[in-house]
Every structure is written in C-alpha cells, then in structure tokens.
Design goal:
Layout: H1 9-21, H2 24-31, H3 35-49, E1 54-57, E2 60-63, H4 65-94, E3 97-101, H5 103-120, E4 126-130, E5 144-149, E6 156-170, H6 172-178, H7 183-187, E7 192-195, H8 202-208, E8 220-222, H9 225-233, E9 238-242, H10 247-252, E10 256-257, E11 265-275, H11 282-310
Parallel strand pairs: 3-4, 3-5, 7-8, 7-9
Antiparallel strand pairs: 1-2, 5-11, 6-9, 6-10, 6-11
Helix pairs in contact: 1-2, 1-3, 1-4, 2-3
Length: 317
C-alpha cells in the first residue's frame, strides 16, 4: 500500500479498542458508541485492507495474524499521536498570551489597566502588539485582536468594548478663554489639532453641527491620538478626539469639551475579536473576562462624565 493511501483514522481507533478489549461491546462502551457502530467500522477497515482482522471464538474475538500486525502498528501510531497531542496542548496552554491592539487604544486605555491584571495573574506571560494591521488568525500566532471599526462577523467572535464619541477637546485655560463664544469665530482663531488616522475630520464635525468656516488652518497633525490629546492638554490647541481615548484626561480635568452644547459625532467602536477556537484556552478566557468587565465599568464611568460635561447632548448608547 502506498504512502498516499488513506486508512480511515476513525476505523483504526475503533479497531484498536476492539483489539485491546477483544470485545465489540466493551470497545463500544469505551468509545461511547453502540457495538454495531464499532462492528461497522471494523468491517469497513477489513474491506479496505482486503483481509480479516478478527475471528470469533467461544469467549470473544481473537486477532488474526494480519490483525496482530496491524494492532502493533496501530498501537504505536496512536500512542505517538496522543503523546504529540498532549505536548501541543501543554505548549498551547503555557505559551504567552498574544494580544494585538490598535495603538492609541493600547496606549491610552489598555496600558493604564494592565498593571492590575498582571499583578492578579503573575504567572501569565503576555505579549502586546500595538499595530493598525488586522490579524490573519490562520497565519499568525495571535490570540486576541482589539480592533477599531465594525464587528468582524463570519467565523470570528466579536464583542464590543467601547463606542467612540468624538468632540473638540481643550485644556481648562483654553475653555475659560473661549467658552460660550461663537464656534465659527473660535475655530477660526485657535490652532486645530488633528489625528491623521482618525475617521472623524474637522470638516465632518462642522457639517454635523451646521457650522460654516471658509478656510480651516491645517494646524497640528499627529500620527496618534495619544499625541494629539497630550498636545491639547498642554494648551497648544483644540483636538478633535474620542472621549473613550480621552477618558482619563476628562476624569482628571486635564481636558474638557470646548463646545458642550454642540453635537458630538458618534463613530465606530472598539471590538474584542478572535476565532471561536481560541476561547478554549484558559489564558484567553481569563483575559477576555477581565477585559469585558473593565470595559463595562469604563462605559458606566464615561456615561457619567458625558452627563456631567455634555449635559443634554450626551449620547444615548
């Protein structure tokens, strides 16, 4: 028989059980199937090989000469398979938890919460990869991906962590100087700060609020929201940014909405994504449960901030 021939693995496992027990009934009990199901698999295997593997005697079954030869090979092969399975399983359970995350969310949201998780799970090794690249779970050793955008769907599990709400943000001094003045006048005289990869532009926010400005200065542009928010907190301009990413700045008073009476722009969301098969890993389960709990507490706290800082304009998520 050539190497390319395909022996049915299921039938081989059933044959191995019968050969060990010398009984179709006891083999069926071990495999949790009926004895007739076991008999059918053995007969199919005998048909594939063109030889009898058992002969019946008074007290059960005995292996034929070909059966003995196959049983020896099958036992060795299955032992090797089970051993490899255990080794792979152990490596899988003990390899570092690999999490890919959108850079700004990782820097401004996840990193601030990770120390508590690490202290609670000192034996868990974690690898964080902050990148805008989407994960190909079939080709990359990544357990979880925190993505910005829409739910992935398909064969991936996607659970929402946070919804994005975008407003102009400034430091306290800028707010005291410009609060309650005409927005068009203010935005024509202050430096605007933009995150180049943000899906919400100043033009989009202006349209949402029916504000017309002939020419917007380019102002300051940064690659990451973390940079834009920091510059705004230093009084260097007004940043059009996410309240989710600015949560700590808002809670600590480093930033506040410049126009609390104007309409925020609701944008995409942050999703925790992975293939269903990854949820069987204990480390993935632990991290996922912790992350969803943190996200729930964050949404509640952020809603309270929205109520305080945006009043009637806070979103109804």
């Amino acid at each position: 028989m050539s190497r390319n021939s395909r022996l049915p693995l299921k039938a081989m496992m059933y044959f191995d059980a019968v050969a060990r027990h010398r009984s179709l009934t006891r083999a069926g009990e071990e495999l949790d199937v009926s004895s007739s199901a076991v008999s059918q698999q053995v007969k199919a295997l005998e048909g594939t090989l063109g030889t009898a593997l058992f002969r019946r005697v008074k007290h059960g079954l005995v292996l034929t000469e070909d059966g003995e030869r196959l049983f020896k090979a099958t036992s060795e092969a299955l032992d090797l398979l089970y051993s490899s399975e255990r080794q792979i399983s152990r490596r899988s359970q003990h390899r570092p938890l690999s999490v890919r995350v959108a850079p700004s969310f990782g820097a401004l949201w996840l990193t601030r919460r990770l120390p508590a998780f690490i202290r609670a799970h000192p034996d868990m090794d974690i690898r964080i990869d902050a990148t805008t690249e989407l994960t190909d779970f079939d080709k990359e050793m990544v357990d979880l991906d925190i993505r910005y955008g829409r739910s992935s769907g398909g064969d991936l599990t996607s659970e929402m962590l946070a919804e994005d709400l975008v407003v102009p943000l400034c430091d306290q001094e800028t707010y005291r100087k410009f609060a309650f003045r005409d927005p068009a006048e203010i935005l024509g005289s202050v430096r605007l700060i933009s995150s180049m990869k943000s899906a919400v532009s100043w033009d989009r926010w202006l349209v949402a609020n029916n504000i017309q400005i002939d020419t917007l200065a380019e102002g300051l542009q940064f690659d990451r929201s973390s940079m834009s928010l920091y510059m705004a907190s230093q009084g260097l301009g007004v940043a059009l940014e996410s309240t989710t990413l600015a949560h700590n700045y808002l809670a600590e008073g480093g930033l506040r909405p410049l126009f609390p009476a104007l309409k925020p722009v609701a944008n995409a969301s942050y999703w925790l994504t992975c293939p269903n098969r990854h949820l069987s890993r204990r480390s993935v389960q632990i991290f996922r449960d912790w992350l969803l709990d943190e996200a729930g507490k964050d949404r509640q706290a952020l809603d309270e901030l929205h109520a305080k800082l945006l009043g009637s304009n806070r979103p109804a998520f």
